[in-house]
Amino acid sequence: MHDDLIDHLVRSAPLQRGEAARVIQDVLAYFDEPAEEFVRRRHRELRGQGLVNDEIFRRIAQELPHRAVAPPELSLRQLRRIVYG
User: Fold this and answer.
1) Rounded CA separation 21/1 (Å)
2) b/e per residue, 48-70, with b = 16+ CB within 10 A?
3) 83, 54, 60, 85: which is closest to 73 by C-alpha?
4) For residue range 18-69, what is the model confidence (pLDDT) as tens digits?
5) Which position has the higher pLDDT, 70 or 46?
6) Three-state DSSP class for 51?
7) N or C: which end of the chain has fewer CB within 10 A?
8) Among positive and negative, which fits the CA dihedral 62, 65, 70, 74?
């Protein structure tokens, strides 16, 4: 799976084939994360950094369009609903 990408990483970075395969799997899993899970995870991470909800939801709204497969635009209210129900 992804042998050409693994070969590329082995040539371009100081990685063994197994390490390159794990990196690829991690990256694919990161970008495969559904929007709702991304919002909840980022909320926890940013809350852990001491940010308040107003700043957190603004940041998440700015980050979402830059995901590999951007979800539809969500309002701040929709983001809050994802986190708090």
Assistant:
1) 9
2) eeeeeeeebbeebbeebeeeeee
3) 60
4) 999 999 999 888 888 888 999 999 999 999 999 999 999 999 999 988 887 6
5) 46
6) coil
7) C
8) positive
